[in-house]
Amino acid sequence: MSNWQIGLAVLAVLAVLWLCRPKVKKIKGDDMPVWPFEPMPLMTDSEVLFYKKLSAALPEFHLFGQVQLSRMIEPIEEVADERQFWFNRICRQSVDFVLIDEDLQTVLAAIELDDWTHESKARQKQDAKKDKALASAGIPIIRFHAEKMPSSQMIRQEVLEVLRAYR
After folding, report:
1. In 3D, which of 16, 133, 147 has the Cα closest to residue 85?
2. DSSP-derived 3-state class of residue 145
3. Which residues, 6 or more positions from 136, have their beta carbon under 8 angstroms from its beta carbon?
4. CB neighbours of 79 closer than 8 A, spacing ≥ 6?
């Protein structure tokens, strides 16, 4: 058999394999009658415990959990032509809790419950960006450590002290 005959035979085998390959059905999500989702807890067990303490500590305020930064802050008018760039800096970030004034519109502070996952360099870099974005908008961020779960009294004291400093 010559080289060209071998090459032709290889091409024929490859063509047959390609024609006989299993057909992969491409999934078009919008065409599916049911999407592949299931519910998940909104908060970790530590966050639930902390939320209860936070609520007891600050009954005069409203609390919201797991709030996206893009629902709390936005780029200033002066950077309107770079709005998408600045939005992309914060769009996937959230805070554990937001303390809201009685008007239900004024964000008073962001509150984070940090656990062992915040010890990695990557997470610290994300936290620094979050802190910088919130501080730039004039919103204090208060961090508590899950391992040293504070009492309601300690939470109240810390939060009110920070709020006084920002007013």
Report:
1. 133
2. strand
3. 73
4. 86
Q: Which helix (H) or strand (E) holds 116?
A: none
- Residue 134 backbone zone (phi > 0: left; psi -120 to 50: alpha; other: beta): alpha
pLDDT tens string 8-55: 666 665 666 666 677 666 667 788 888 889 999 999 999 999 999 999
Residue 90's CB: how many other CB atoms inside 10 A?
A: 21
Average pLDDT, the chain: 87
Burial 96-114 (b: 16+ CB within 10 A, else e): bbbbbeeeeeebbbbbbbb
The Cα–Cα gap between 84 and 98 comes to: 24
DSSP labels, 19-87:
HHSPPPPPP-GGG-SS-S-----SS-HHHHHHHHHHHHH-TTSEEEEEEEGGGT----GGGGGGHHHHH
Output the CATH code of domain 45-166: 3.90.1570
What confidence category does residue 116 fall into, taking pLDDT thresholds of 50, 70 and 90? confident
Q: Which residue's entry shows tokens 């002066």?
A: 78
pLDDT at res. 166? 86
**For residue 61, what are its two tokens?**
């305020």
- Do β-strands 62-68 and 94-100 pair in parallel, antiparallel, or remain unpaired? antiparallel
Looking at residue 50, its pLDDT comes to 96
pLDDT score for 134: 96
